[in-house]
Amino acid sequence: MADESPISGELSRDLSLFHITMMGLGMMIGAGVFVGIGICISGAGPGGLLVAFALNGLIALFSAMSFAELSSAIPRAGGAYNFARIGFGRGPSFVAGWMEWLASSAAGGFYAVTFATYTVEFFHGLGLLDALPAGGVAVLQKAVAVAAAGLFIYINYRGSSETGKIGALFTVGQMLFVLSVGVVGVVVAIWQPDRVANFRPFVPRGWWRIFGVMGVIYVAFEGFEVIAQAGDETVAPRRNIPKAMLYSVLIVTVTYVAVAFASVVAVRSADVGGRPAWEYIADDPEIGFQRAVEQLMPNKFFGNLLVTLAVIFSATSALNATIYSATRASYALGRDGMLPPLFARISLRRKTPYGALALTAVLVLAVALALQPKHAGATASIMFLFLFFLVNLCVIRIRRNMSDELHYGYLMPLFPLFPVLALGCQVLLAGAIVTESWIAWAIALVWVPAGIVTYYAYSRKHALPTADEIHVLEEQRAEAPEGYRIMVAVANPHNALEMVETTYKLCGAKQASVELLHMVPVPEQVPLTDAERYMLDGKEGILETMLYLAPRFPLSTTIRYCRNPARGIISAVREKRTDMLILGWHGRRRGGVFRIGSTVDPIIERSPCDVLVLKDCGGSRKFQRVLVPVAGGPNSAFALEVAGILAEPEDGKITALTVGGRGRFDLDAFVAEQIERDESLRERVVGKTVWGRDVVRAILNEAEDHDLVVLGCTSEPVLRRMTHNPVPEIVARRCPKPLVMVQAGRGIRSWVKRWI
Amino acid sequence: MEIDAIIGLAILAAALGLQAYLVFWGRRTIERIARSGRRSAREIGRELRGGR
Q: Where does the pLDDT of residue A474 fall: very low under 50, low under 70, confident under 90, or very high at 90 and above?
């Protein structure tokens, strides 16, 4: 946005430490562990399984420390591609982006194949696929894998994806499942110590085989890399990004080791014909985890169902994330001119980079169709190993050359010991993968040289100059003006003027300053920093309205780019220390699960300031008879205060209404108390009690004689609200008159309440 | 207990222990850097070494 424009542009930072930690964990606890356990135990044996997971976690942590240091110094979207550009220039950064594109696409293909393997195997186990001819199950698995990948490619094209919070909830569910398997395993081992004998022999195929399987399952540890991509969206990124990376790797390693232990002790030799437990699990490595867990459950069907559901949730969530991660990587190359412009094309309707997505889809589908899970996982692993190798070189170079220029939020100890150790381990693992999957190496040997050729043949000539490659987008903290602050969130140009006029009635009473805010949602596939280039197409109406209002009213106007409007508005309220937030509402409920709407509901629930939701209030209207249904809570008092401001100062009358027969609310005392607090209400407020069982009908009947209804949101407990619709929300939906819903700011509420 | 198991358990304990140490050391460092307001790697390094 140009400096002289009356509308300022901002990016919304609304991801907390919890969100980004869950984001990393969600990527890691995808399908890697479920398939990895079988693959690992077949190559390294029962003891080797535990050692492989623990050592992989340590090696991943070395790289995570490099990512953490670089992300704390350069906290912007781009991750490895960006670090390579700053550390080594264009050529290596192109190769980094090129490798990341295949790594994420191969991981997507791996998750699609895993999803299909477990789903088809579940039905196969029930005997529902017995009618298929020989080889039919394998064909069905491929078909399901392609269908799953196709579905998520379409979802990515639509631009909808899990919001941070829903994604975090999914991840918590996956974590709980995997951890509970681990805990049950430990309890079983304590209860029946003879099961620990399953670890004998500890490494039946020798120690060297461990490195091969470690390489193949490395994909299960790479998810921390996506945290670096969230640099532009995270609150306090210099502190939170490195913390989230370190925490996620530690949590995931402990979880994997626990679940690996449980898988080994789950099987009793006696139950599988006297064979060693690890051999039984290794019989069918891709579903080895399922074979182990079903032995742990008293009911095999239930065990199978539980594992299949866990894999479906984990794999689909990771599949979605890897597709948009791969799309974003290839889009960045197209945007910077290093790949043809097709990669940077954004759909006008969906706002998603359809060119990059289409070519990513080709890679994902090719991997899902052509490779077995082990080879798909190994391909993703080897590309991530190469990518992380480059990042470990970057951290050394950047610390040596630019350590005085950058502002660090985290520094690794004993530098450069850990990046050097990581480099050595990555060479070892990449080399060892060839013993398990030569296909992965063959793909890498084609893909990386192809990238280098592409760079010299195309990218070097077409790359766009980026004048400020080390530019860091600092956290934007607006200078909070003195006094009472009102924020008006406008989404619709048709009611913006009405909302502003209504706001100015409140302003007079509160002597407040006003900020007009419009949130522009940006799909996950496009970095927030690129949003200004593309996302305002189709927003001309609201922009013109903001430009019209800016000189006519003493207000500031801001466009804010976000992933989710509700989270973006709440984060803006917090950042700007807003005292009152005003929202518009069209009066219809979107979707059965929301009381008012998908944006308004979470704002009312979580906003730290007072919230007013206006429905059809028409800014220039005069309100002479205002109805305020009250029940004595904090919102009733606030509703009366707002009614006092909106009602005509000379002849406006306010009716404080209570519906009798539902408890012993003393209306007269309540009204007297409010008048004592606000003298302007004296002579204007009258109390009225009506009797009836149907509270909603009673309020709606009374509303017919009034020209405005102001009512407080419910203050019922969260769990009660989840089971039935509260009265204020029903009245708000059914009332044909202009209406204002109010929610008094409650400051910091309990953690549990907010998260529910 | 066989020798492989002893070696394996030692590696397991060392890997998990080192990982936990590095993570909690990192967390403490991040908080210290945030509190101290130091910015460049040189300043932070000096701070972490106790001003030497």
A: very low
Whether chain A has a CB inside 8 Å of the CB on B36: the answer is no
| Domain shared by A112 and A65, yes or no | yes
Q: State whether A202 and B5 contact (CB < 8 Å).
A: yes
Q: How many domains does chain A have?
A: 3
- β partners of residue A489: A517, A583
Residue of B nearest to A403 (CA): B41
CA distance A667 to A203: 78
Helix or strand holding residue A658 (H, E): strand A653-660
Four-point Cα dihedral A745, A751, A754, A755, nearest 10: 170
pLDDT score at A591: 52
**ipTM confidence:** 0.95
Beta partners for residue A371, in sequence order:
none
Residues spanned by the domain of A675: 618-739
- Cβ neighbors of A152 (< 8 A, separation 6 or more) are A108, A112, A316, A319, A320, A323
State the DSSP code for A464: P
Question: Whose CA is closest to A519, among A10, A159, A2, A79?
Answer: A10
Give the model's pLDDT for residue A395: 94
- The continuous run of DSSP H or E covering A415 comes out as none
Q: Are residues A656 and A690 in the same domain?
A: yes
Whether A473 maps to a domain, the answer reads: no
Q: Same structural domain for residues A416 and A518?
A: no
Domain assignment present for A141: yes
Give dist(CA A670, CA A648) in Å, integer.
Answer: 22
Closest to B8 (Cβ–Cβ): which among A47, A65, A247? Answer: A47
pLDDT in tens, A413-437: 998 999 999 999 999 999 999 988 9
A456 with A355, same domain? yes
Cis upstream peptide for A416 (omega within 30°): yes
Residue A23 pLDDT: 83
Minimal CA–CA distance to A535: which of A5, A3, A2, A11?
A: A11
Alpha helices in A267-353 (DSSP H): 277-282, 288-296, 300-335
Residue A607: CATH number of its domain:
3.40.50.620
For chains A and B, what is the number of CB pairs under 8 angstroms? 101
> What is the edge-to-edge ordering of all strands in the sheet holding A555-562?
A7-11, A555-562, A512-521, A484-489, A580-584, A610-615, A739-743, A708-712, A625-629, A653-660, A685-691
* Nearest partner of B20 among A246, A223, A49, A388, judged by Cα: A246
Domain edge (last residue) among A462, A493, A513: A462
How much is the pLDDT for A659?
82
Residue A753 belongs to some domain of the structure:
no
Residues A509 and A551 in one domain: yes
CA distance A55 to chain B (A): 6
Please check whether residue A1 lies inside any domain of the structure. Answer: no
Q: Is the pTM of this model over 0.90?
A: no
Q: How far apart are CA A700 and CA A459, in angstroms?
A: 67
Same structural domain, A252 and A398: yes
- Are residue A225 and residue A290 in the same domain, yes or no? yes
Q: Would the CA dihedral through A634, A639, A640, A645 be positive or negative?
A: positive
